[in-house]
């Protein structure tokens, strides 16, 4: 059942560019959406399943992106090596941050992660000898896989779709494993989880690091695709957008996160026709969804279409 | 099996347990009775490591566990059934039980775990019927069965039960109590049970301690205590027999 959904999704993604190879919404916005999906799926593990909150997730995306950008442009690193270095950096930073921060709960955790995100953003803006300041860094070299350069929209589509599908598969597997159950136990009640013998602080730190590393990889890919990065791409607002994707799609549902990321990527594109009213209508739609489908779009719709309790459970696990 | 010496626990500046000493021998059911706020639950959470004592020592199975983390204590074979059941409502019955075996699945104890799963199902056939059902939809009694079954899945040597009769219909209380006795007699589990329902607790236990405002005020065999005039007055109700057996 879990893999069936993923299979259908993969098939749709594979067929779309064959039908519309030059379509802007498929090959260009599609890539952005795939990146957002990876970020949302990662954040959903931490937020939806483990029941924590992070308002600073864009910082890890930014650290991954800037590591790649700086190491390739200023120090002439191989892009893959730079990506590896970025992932290692985020691994260490997120681990060090997680240890003290994850002792906090609820609003306090939100504040702490928010603060962390802002610190990283300020650092990227201020430390301009390295980061290029508010102007950012440009002419970042392209990626290539064994001499096959990823230099067209279609190629980026294929690469980012592959990484995204792997991340969804990864998330589905985690959730179905004992680690996934432990996350949901921590979400349910930390005291009860402790009495099961679950080391709750370790479980939380692990999932935080995993979701930060997923963001770092995405940031690194993003920077090579865009060939440009500025602090705007990893500001506080992007963190909020990621949280919105997770909540909108439906917390504690991997496909919910996919759904949320897809909508938050495409909706603003389609609303362009409304020009000045774009933001107003966008906000209205979000409010409408949260009022009428408070469990999120994916989970809510899934419940509408299935009446049996058995299948309702599937809405939450997939 | 469990030895507690001169235990002091406090919440911030407020002392809760004052010089509590007790012991539980292997194969015993020991009851801990007392009124609201006496410190019964505090004592259990201190034993299971969720709260750290200020002074005193706790020994389990020859190991000092006073400073150990809850997960290390579970690994030593001491499992708690927390107050108010605390089951994971969005997960299914079976997933809850699998969570109970959390530490064992990491040690690739797969076969033994599925055997114990069957043991829990034969102990509580109701849970087997509802294995794929979301745990939040169970009745109170079934949730209590699930909480006990879940603790059993950790393959403990000793169980700490916190108010298993809380909020259950009298008929269900009897059946839960029977299960506790059979866990003790058939599975050889040592049990420390905290109860407000003093009569039931004394009926199934070998020995008992009475806790009053953080101090042990009375101890002895359950048979003696149930006849004790002070216990009768304070916990069983004055003239209990004349009222109920009229």
Q: Evaluate the radius of gyration of chain A.
A: 19 Å
Number of helices of chain B: 12
Assign the CATH class of chain A: Mainly Alpha
User: Could you estimate the helical fraction of the residues of chain B in percent?
Assistant: 40-55%
Q: Can you tell me the residue ranges of chain B where pLDDT is under 50 for at least 5 consecutive residues?
A: none
Mean pLDDT of chain A: 90
CATH topology (level 3) name of chain A:
ABC transporter involved in vitamin B12 uptake, BtuC
Radius of gyration of chain B: 18 Å
Structural domain count of chain A: 1
* Side-by-side strand order of the widest sheet of chain B: 6-7-8-3-9-10
Tell me which protein chains meet in the greatest interface and how many residues each side has.
Answer: A-B, 20 and 35 residues
Name the poorly predicted regions of chain A. Answer: none
The secondary-structure class of chain B comes to: alpha/beta
Order of helices and strands of chain B: EEEHEEHEHHHHHEHEHEEHHH
Tell me the distance between the termini of chain A. Answer: 8 Å
Number of strands of chain B: 10
The largest sheet of chain A has its strands arranged as: 1-4
Strand fraction of chain A equals under 5%
Note the main sheet of chain A: 2 strands, antiparallel
Alpha-carbon distance between the two ends of chain B: 43 Å
User: Structural class given helices, strands, pairing of chain A?
Assistant: mainly alpha
């Amino acid at each position: 059942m879990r893999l069936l959904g993923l299979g259908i999704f993969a098939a749709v993604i594979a067929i779309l560019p064959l039908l519309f190879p030059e379509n802007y919404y498929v090959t260009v916005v599609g890539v952005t959406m795939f990146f957002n999906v990876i970020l949302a799926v990662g954040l959903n593990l931490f937020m939806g399943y483990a029941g924590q909150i992070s308002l600073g997730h864009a910082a890890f995306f930014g650290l991954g992106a800037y590591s790649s950008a700086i190491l390739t442009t200023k120090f002439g690193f191989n892009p893959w090596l730079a990506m590896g270095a970025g992932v290692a950096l985020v691994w260490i930073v997120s681990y060090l941050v997680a240890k003290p921060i994850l002792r906090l709960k609820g609003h306090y955790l939100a504040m702490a992660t928010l603060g962390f995100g802002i610190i990283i953003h300020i650092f990227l803006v201020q430390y301009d000898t390295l980061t290029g300041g508010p102007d950012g860094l440009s002419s970042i070299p392209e990626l290539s896989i064994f001499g096959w350069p990823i230099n067209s929209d279609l190629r980026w589509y294929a690469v980012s779709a592959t990484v995204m599908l792997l991340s969804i598969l990864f998330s589905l597997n985690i959730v179905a494993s004992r680690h996934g159950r432990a996350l949901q136990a921590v979400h349910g009640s930390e005291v009860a989880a402790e009495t099961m013998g679950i080391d709750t602080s370790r479980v939380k730190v692990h999932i935080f690091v995993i979701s930060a590393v997923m963001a770092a990889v995405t940031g690194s890919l993003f920077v090579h695709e865009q060939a440009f990065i500025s602090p705007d791409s990893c500001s506080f607002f992007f963190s909020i957008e990621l949280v919105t994707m997770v909540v909108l799609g439906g917390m504690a549902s991997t496909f919910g996160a996919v759904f949320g990321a897809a909508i938050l990527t495409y909706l603003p594109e389609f609303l362009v026709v409304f020009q000045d009213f774009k933001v107003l209508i966008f906000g209205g739609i979000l409010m409408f969804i949260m009022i009428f489908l408070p469990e999120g779009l994916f989970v809510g719709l899934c419940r509408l279409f299935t009446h049996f309790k058995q299948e309702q459970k599937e809405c939450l696990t997939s | 099996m469990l030895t507690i010496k001169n235990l002091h626990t406090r919440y911030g500046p407020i002392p809760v347990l004052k010089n509590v000493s007790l012991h539980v021998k292997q194969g015993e059911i020991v009851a801990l009775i007392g009124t609201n706020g006496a410190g019964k639950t505090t004592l259990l959470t201190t034993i299971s490591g969720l709260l750290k004592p200020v002074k005193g020592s706790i020994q389990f199975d020859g190991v000092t566990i006073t400073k150990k983390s809850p997960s290390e204590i579970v690994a030593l074979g001491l499992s708690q059934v927390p107050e108010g059941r605390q089951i994971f409502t969005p997960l299914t019955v079976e997933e809850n039980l699998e969570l109970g075996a959390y530490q064992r699945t990491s040690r690739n104890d797969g076969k033994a775990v599925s055997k114990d799963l069957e043991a829990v199902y034969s102990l509580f056939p109701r849970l087997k019927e509802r294995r794929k059902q979301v745990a939040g939809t169970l009745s109170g009694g079934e949730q209590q069965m699930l909480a006990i079954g879940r603790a059993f899945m950790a393959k403990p040597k000793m169980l700490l039960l916190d108010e298993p009769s809380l909020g259950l219909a009298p008929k269900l209380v009897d059946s839960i109590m029977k299960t506790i006795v059979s866990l003790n007699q058939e599975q050889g589990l040592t049990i420390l049970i905290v109860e407000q329902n003093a009569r039931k607790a004394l009926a199934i236990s070998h020995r008992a301690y009475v806790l009053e405002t953080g101090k042990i005020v009375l101890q002895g065999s359950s048979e003696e205590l149930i006849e004790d005039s002070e216990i009768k007055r304070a916990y069983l109700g004055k003239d209990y027999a004349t009222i109920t057996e009229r």
